[in-house]
Design a protein that fits this description.
Chain lengths: ~120, ~120
């Protein structure tokens, strides 16, 4: 299985809602990533998990809270978001973030709209 | 901040023609990667070139890397309508001691349209 899955595909939420994005991979990868992509822009890295521990937080606002329950799962908890947080959220995985020279496998993304 | 700059921003060609996209970056890198994205969905990895490599081929793809100029190019030969997509370069920065943290920085992307 060389696939990264993400749920839901689409999410509409109000600014007072709490929701979660989910990502799963079964390739035995030990690094997982969250990216945010605005329309017609490149993906921007948000978080990196390496061996289930948060290794990089790109100064992301606390209304985004990542969680890595185990090596196959990655969640992104959302709370009190702003309309400008509307974007495509991409999850990715790779063999090992510290090994270098490894490609990242991306999921199809969750398109988030904040009203 | 995004260190990669790509040109052209958009490229429109006919099937069978070659497409060349360029990427420039600013910092020392471990490797440079190219990804394709269809219609705002997930990215697909195309090719990775290490900092000590100058050229790499994969099927109809040819990538060059010039670390002295901090630039790379992606050539797609004999293009097909199915190649229509956005193409991004991404750099894996090199930190002290040659460490990589898997932290990819993406360029602005080139939108390629291949007309049948």
């Amino acid at each position: 299985d060389t696939e990264v899955t993400q749920t839901p595909k689409h999410l509409v939420m109000g600014m007072t809602n709490k929701k979660s994005l989910k990502c799963e991979q079964h390739m035995g990868h030990r690094a997982m990533y969250w990216y945010k992509q605005k329309a017609k822009k490149p993906p921007e890295l948000m978080f990196v998990y390496s061996y289930e521990k948060l290794s990089i937080n790109e100064s992301v606002p606390s209304r985004f809270s990542p969680e890595c329950p185990n090596s196959s799962l990655l969640n992104l908890h959302l709370h009190a978001l702003q309309p400008e947080d509307s974007a495509l959220y991409l999850c990715a995985s790779s063999q090992d973030s510290l090994a270098g020279d490894t490609e990242q496998f991306f999921g199809p993304g969750t398109r988030l709209t904040v009203l | 901040s995004q260190q990669g700059e790509e040109d052209p921003q958009a490229l429109s060609i006919q099937e069978g023609e070659n497409a060349t996209m360029n990427c420039s970056y600013k910092t020392s890198i471990n490797n440079l990667q190219w990804y394709r994205q269809n219609s705002g969905r997930g990215l697909v990895h195309l090719i990775l070139i290490r900092s000590n490599e100058r050229e790499k081929h994969s099927g109809r793809l040819r990538v060059t890397l010039d670390t002295s100029k901090k630039s790379s190019s992606l050539l797609i030969t004999a293009s097909r309508a199915a190649d229509t997509a956005s193409y991004f370069c991404a750099t894996d920065a090199r930190y002290a001691g040659g460490t990589s943290y898997g932290k990819l920085t993406f360029g602005q992307g080139t939108i390629l349209t291949v007309h049948p």
